[in-house]
Amino acid sequence: MRQEEKHPFMKRMAAACVPLKLRLELTRRCNLRCIHCKVHCGEQPGGELTAPEIASLLDQARELGTIEVSVTGGEVFARPDIMDILEAILGRDFLLHIQTNASAMEPRHIAFLAARAKKILRVSVSLYARDPAVHDRITGVPGSNARTLKNLFALRDAGVPVFCFTLLMKENAAHARDMQAFYEEHALPFQFNTFIIPRDDGCAAPLAQRIPLEILPGLPVNWYGYLNPEGPEDPAQFHAEATLDAWCPAARFAVVTATGDVIACSLLRESAGNVRETPFGDIWFRSPALQRIRDIRLKELECFSCDLFPSCKPCAGLAHIEHGDLRKRPAEMCRLSRALLPGKA
Questions:
Q1: Which domains does the chain have, with CATH numbers?
Q2: Cα dist. 313→3, 127, 231, 248 in Å?
Q3: What is the mean predicted confidence (pLDDT) over 312-321?
Q4: What pTM, to 2 d.p., does this model score?
């Protein structure tokens, strides 16, 4: 959960299955070919929800209590109709969060966002290195670093709230401190991440970019805060009969794929139903696939009996990717937690 998701109100709404947040995966198209990406991008768009279909979904979501919409891809600015979609979101007074690599943005996109900046929570921009050679090697597209930086600063200077996201991997780990200095020099809010997972078509190639344990402690990352974003809380709330929403938003905040499937989260991709066939509210409140996740008790998790729990809270989506069972221990989280949580090595 992000920091604001820890607020008691947000937790109450999640427990009541009010989809305060809606994540729209607008497309699988992308102008980059990143070596680590979990999305099998570059496919022909076939079957993407149209802008009018998205507008209808937004109306349904608003009736259910949604207040924030996050758009992601692929690359959202690869859609020719992206401004129609963003206007549909902002015109309905949703708060907007955009995830983008920023390299496909055009001046008209930046002007559009600048004129509506007060309704935008943030534009999260992926940046892998200040060094163009390193960044472009990761993205597979020469010149992408220059375009990303140009548009990042254009957004910032136009008054659009920006946030920088750097995934650390073998290819750029040696540049982490340089990136930290860059962000601090330009007063840019940022986050480092290290989670790399298999591609969603089953390809394991991205895993080759996972950072070896011996390198991780030297990175400029607050590992306790990274692995335990909930912070120090009363362990009593994580009792045997508690449900996953004690920390996990899966099946509590909504995710809809580019083709209209409602899924529990970006990693738990079993379709609970399709909004082209069934009203969003019927899927959200009546889907057996979602209810199965909501019904899981903490005592069912392998991690519940671990000495690291609840300082380390497992990711159900990662467990499902690794083992096909979200109750299993997610090995990548365990690898990091055992090595990096204070006093737990």
A1: 3-234+250-296 (3.20.20.70)
A2: 15, 27, 11, 9
A3: 93
A4: 0.93
